[in-house]
Amino acid sequence: MIVFLDFEASSLGKRSFPVELGWVREDGREESHLIRPAPDWTEWSAEAEAIHRLTRERLEEEGEPHGEVARRMLAELSGHALYASAPSWDGQWLSRLLRAAGQPRHALRLRDTEEARRDAALAAFTAAGVEPSRCDQLLAGILADIVQEQREATPAHRALEDAKSELRLWQEARRRAEEAARGIGRRHA
Predict the structure, then answer these.
(1) Taking the CB of the first residue and of the last residue of the chain, which one, N or C, has fewer CB atoms within 10 A?
(2) pTM summary value
(3) Beta-bridge partners for 65
(4) Are 87 and 81 in contact (CB under 8 A)?
(5) Which of 34, 26, 27, 39 lies closest to 7, judged by CA?
(6) How far apart are CA 60 and CA 34, in angstroms?
């Protein structure tokens, strides 16, 4: 199953840490977790706090222990295709969370959501019997439009909402590819 996930973090610094995690599966099931910082997680940015609106005090009071979040994540997401819009940053925070919980840092791997969109569109073209020579041009247009829409949208800077936004863009890539394939079929009928 495809799963889109997102982290919010304490900063964009070298020693930043995850403060919130959200994921949504392609079937719509979702989870969100505030993460109580590990004792040695100290790097904090007022700028990051102003963006995601999560204070360290709130994380200390309401957050789930980092080890519990890591175990839940492994239990729910192992064996699934995991996608993030910024896999290098999200991967860094995933690794920090897993290591702090005593888990292997590569127990889960993230891929780029653009790859998921491309694969969904190509699968729609293949299912509709679109000739491979036509796919590249159609695919480029669909993906460029979606990337532009993503740039114009304002991210929520909350993990679950941003993950759900990625799911919607993936669904939109598939829908547009199906629509384009139907259009080709009508022209050839």
Answers:
(1) C
(2) 0.92
(3) 36
(4) no
(5) 34
(6) 9
Residue type, 3: V
Please count the other Cβ atoms lying within 10 Å of the Cβ belonging to residue 25: 18
- Of the candidates 35, 16, 6, the one whose C-alpha atom is nearest the C-alpha of residue 155 is 6
Q: CA–CA separation, 169 vs 24, rounded Å?
A: 13
Rounded to whole angstroms, the Cα distance separating 12 from 46 reads: 11
46-80 pLDDT, tens per residue? 999 999 999 999 999 999 999 999 999 999 999 99
The tokens for 150 are 């993503």
Domain architecture of the chain: domains with CATH: 2-111 (3.30.420.10), 113-188 (no CATH)
Report d(CA 174, CA 135) in Å as an integer.
Answer: 13
Tokens (6 digits) for 83: 């996608």
Q: Evaluate whether 30 touches 167 at the Cβ level (below 8 Å).
A: no
| Residue pair 25/2 in contact by the 8 Å Cβ criterion | yes
